[in-house]
Design a protein that fits this description.
This protein has about 230 residues and is an alpha/beta fold. It has 9 helices and 8 strands. Helix 1 links the parallel strand 1 and strand 2.
């Protein structure tokens, strides 16, 4: 039985990922900041809720302790993310960036650090970082892609940082399969449900990486079509 924890899993991509993995036989932990919403999502899906705010080290450590006492962890999916301020670039401040990086970048570092001892006990340890094509240098310079039309310095740069973190952790921890998944332009609350993909389509790459059973390459960046350019 594969045990998986998903951060930010009470709605959107996290919720759909949980649903699909449960359908495939995973035991899933729903990590969410809000206890009411998180417990509701877990009850609906047949998962287990754990309070988890990736911007709060104490919360992350407590969640890791809870999961550890329950039996361990095989797959960590770092899905939690926020967009932050949409102000003009000239008006953005360091504090605006710090708010988003606290979740999208530092939150992933906190989670990996806290859950790494549990993952090391697994026979097929896996980490999936949910990044974005908006953080891909290749995609944002390709005028045929929608990513090239989006100017969002905070969010986009945070996802670039997350993709590079994925590569660096993969090199540093070769015993763990660590890869990044780009959901694509998916209809979620994050974009006002404007995306052209369904949440099921948006979770294809995440589910693919989470179900490899500890096999396959590490340090890659994929979308639902396969390996993508950074």
């Amino acid at each position: 039985m594969t045990t998986t924890l998903i951060t930010g899993a009470n709605k959107g991509l996290g919720y759909e990922t949980a649903r699909r993995l449960i359908e495939q036989g995973h035991t899933v932990w729903i990590g969410a900041r809000d206890e009411t919403r998180g417990q509701k999502a877990a009850d609906e899906l047949g998962a287990t809720f754990v309070q988890l705010d990736v911007a709060d080290q104490a919360s992350v450590d407590a969640a890791a302790a809870t999961v550890g006492k329950a039996g361990g962890l095989d797959v960590l999916i770092n899905n939690a993310g926020i967009t932050g301020s949409h102000a003009d670039a000239a008006d953005l401040t360091g504090a605006d960036f710090e708010e988003v990086y606290a979740v999208n970048v530092f939150g992933v570092v906190r989670a990996i650090h806290a859950f790494l001892p549990l993952l090391r006990q697994s026979s097929a340890p896996t980490i999936v970082n949910v990044t974005s094509g908006l953080g891909s240098f290749d995609s944002v310079h390709d005028e045929s892609r929608i990513e090239s039309k989006v100017i969002a310095p905070i969010y986009n740069s945070s996802k670039s940082a997350l993709t590079m973190l994925t590569v660096q952790y993969a090199k540093a921890l070769p015993e763990i399969r660590i890869n990044a998944a780009d959901p694509g332009y998916t209809a979620t609350d994050l974009n006002g449900n404007s995306g052209h993909q369904t949440v099921t389509e948006g979770t294809d790459a995440i589910v693919e990486l989470a179900t490899r059973g500890g096999e396959g390459p590490t340090g890659t960046f994929i979308d639902r079509a396969g390996i993508a350019a950074f």
